[in-house]
Amino acid sequence: MKLSPLQIARYQYQPKLPGMLRNGISEICVNNGAATESVADQEKIQALFPNTYGKNEITFVKGQNTSEAKKQVVGVILSGGQAPGGHNVVCGLYDALKATNPENVLYGFKGGPSGLLDDNYLIFDDEYINQFRNTGGFDIIGSGRTKLETEAQFEVVAETCAKHGITALVIIGGDDSNTNAAVLAEYFAAKGNGVQVIGCPKTIDGDLKNEDIECSFGFDTATKTYSELIGNIERDANSAKKYWHFIKVMGRSASHVALECALETQPNICLIGEEVAAKKMSLAQIADQIADSVAARAAKGWNFGVAIIPEGIVEFVPEFSVLIAEINELLAGEKTAQFNALPTWADKYAFIERGLSKESMAVFAILPENIQQQLFLERDPHGNVQVSLIESEKLFSALVGANLAARKAAGTYTGKYATQHHFFGYEGRCAFPSNFDADYCYSLGYNAFMLIQYGYTGYLSKVSNLSAPAEEWVAGGMPMTKMMNIERRNGKDKPVIRKALVELDGKPFQYFAANRDEWAVETCFTYPGAIQYYGPAEVCDITTRTLALEKGKM
Question: Does the reported pTM lie above 0.85?
Answer without folding.
Answer: yes
